[in-house]
């Protein structure tokens, strides 16, 4: 009784003021790191049900800032973390966009302009941030002096920067087959057509096309459970944008990327995002590891500052190699061992991350990288993923090779007289032309 009463005011505080800003000083830097905690709009789940919802114009830190971390977790109405074996967080994704002032955005609208990351999957994986079950124990901190730029005042006339959040969660309380529900096995969802009413492709037995919004995974006949009101609570750490922050480019590689675009399909992509792991023949192969590899080209080079992979249950590690075979980053899943939120047995609760020593993971323009994703094939898995997310710092003074960002003055600050004497003016004119050309491509609308 007493506890219950305590929770009500706590919840009111939580929901009415969804933002707490607590400045703290970064280690020895003198720049104040601010922390904001927000709640998504509520979503409702009963045993076996699925939400896959897009929330537009979510609460987000405003102003010209450098993002340092982004993490989230599912909580209930009382603010308690919900374990993955009750609500499986398939994924959450945060995308940046320009929305018209005073307009309420919605899926499928052509009124807003997505601002996608630097690549490289066409028409998909456009997010700035995105994780799944591993969100509680995956480090997303960007070391100093780097940051992901947001709130740059330079937006098209009549627009303002906004953020959208996609949450895909599956309630697996009382289901017949927990792993099957989280792997979106079509038979458990009793689904024969996808979200758009199209028949499932031949041989498609599991994946996102079978666990779309408002589908239902099979529960045990006698199980009853209450409808729950849940939130994604997300924490953003950031600093004010200052001249000394070095901006990072975001790239997301996908091990299913074939580099081929099926023709005729408008929103086609070379990245399939999901794939299937067939069970091994335990008599002929003793290790039962499914190794998937692909080669991808990084359009512009630079230093990898941070790397992390995304895998699903069954994943045993992922790696990124340079063109000459150097290991650039390895990311290994951490599985839970218990019952509590953040340590759920059988689930990936974290991914290890890479922070290469400055300059040690350098990539040339157009370099071909190899992405490797390993899964255990001791049993079949459907709808698995092998993504690799990297943050790249482009060379700072390469005026001609680099797509220029707004404050080119900053680059000039230290050596302006040398550069001016050395024909910096020519470079600036070239860069200006380049930027105008690029600007248009960046504002391209892609939403499917
Ligand atoms: C599965 O779907 C069919 C039609 O789509 C329906 O008739 C049937 O009752 C469903 N089965 C279950 C177990 O929900
Ligand atoms: C993937 O599996 C192969 C074959 O077992 C192994 O050689 C490689 O080191 C593994 N890579 C990672 C990142 O686990």
UniProtKB/TrEMBL annotation:
Keywords from UniProt, A to Z, are:
Membrane, Signal, Transmembrane, Transmembrane helix
| Signal peptide positions on this chain | 1-28
The scientific name of the source species is Apostasia shenzhenica
Q: Pfam families given for it?
A: SURNod19
Q: Which InterPro entries match?
A: Stress_up-reg_Nod19
Q: Supply the name of the protein.
A: Stress up-regulated Nod 19 protein
On the tree of life, the source organism's domain of life is Eukaryota
Which residue windows are transmembrane per the record?
A: 416-433
């Amino acid at each position: 009784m007493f506890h219950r009463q305590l929770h009500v005011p706590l919840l009111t505080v939580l929901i009415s003021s969804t933002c707490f800003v607590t400045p703290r000083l970064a280690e020895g830097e003198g720049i104040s790191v601010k922390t904001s905690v927000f709640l998504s709009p509520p979503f409702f789940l009963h045993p076996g049900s699925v939400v896959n919802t897009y929330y537009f114009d979510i609460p987000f830190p405003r102003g010209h800032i450098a993002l340092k971390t982004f993490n989230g977790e599912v909580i209930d109405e009382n603010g308690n973390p919900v374990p993955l074996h009750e609500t499986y967080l398939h994924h959450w994704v945060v995308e940046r966009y320009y929305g018209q002032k005073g307009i309420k955005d919605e899926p499928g609208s052509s009124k807003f302009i997505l601002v996608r990351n630097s690549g490289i999957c066409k028409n998909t994986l456009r997010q700035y941030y995105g994780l799944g079950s591993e969100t509680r124990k995956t480090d997303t901190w960007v070391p100093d002096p780097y940051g992901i730029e947001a709130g740059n005042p330079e937006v098209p006339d009549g627009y303002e920067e906004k953020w959208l959040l996609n949450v895909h969660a599956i309630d697996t309380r009382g289901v017949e087959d927990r792993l099957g529900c989280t792997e979106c096995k079509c038979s458990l969802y009793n689904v024969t057509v996808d979200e758009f009413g199209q028949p499932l492709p031949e041989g498609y037995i599991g994946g996102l096309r079978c666990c779309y919004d408002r589908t239902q995974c099979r529960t045990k006949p006698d199980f009853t459970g209450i409808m729950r009101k849940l939130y994604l609570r997300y924490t953003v750490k950031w600093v004010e944008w200052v001249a000394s922050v070095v901006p990072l480019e975001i790239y997301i590689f996908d091990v299913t990327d074939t580099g081929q675009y099926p023709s005729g399909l408008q929103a086609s992509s070379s990245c399939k995002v999901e794939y299937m792991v067939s069970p091994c023949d335990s008599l002929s192969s003793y290790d039962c590891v499914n190794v998937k590899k692909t080669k991808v080209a990084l359009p512009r080079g630079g230093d990898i500052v941070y790397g992390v992979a995304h895998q699903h249950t069954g994943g045993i590690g992922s790696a990124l190699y340079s063109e000459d075979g150097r290991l650039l980053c390895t990311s290994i899943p951490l599985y839970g061992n218990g019952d509590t939120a953040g340590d759920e047995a059988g689930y990936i609760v974290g991914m290890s991350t890479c922070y290469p020593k400055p300059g040690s993971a350098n990539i040339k323009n157009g370099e071909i990288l190899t992405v490797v994703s390993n899964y255990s094939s001791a049993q079949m898995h459907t709808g698995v993923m092998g993504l690799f997310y990297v943050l790249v710092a482009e060379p700072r003074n390469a005026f001609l090779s680099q797509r220029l960002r707004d404050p080119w003055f900053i680059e000039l600050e230290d050596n302006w007289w040398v550069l001016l004497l050395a024909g910096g003016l020519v470079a600036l004119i070239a860069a200006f032309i380049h930027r105008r050309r690029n600007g248009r491509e960046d504002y391209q609308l892609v939403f499917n």
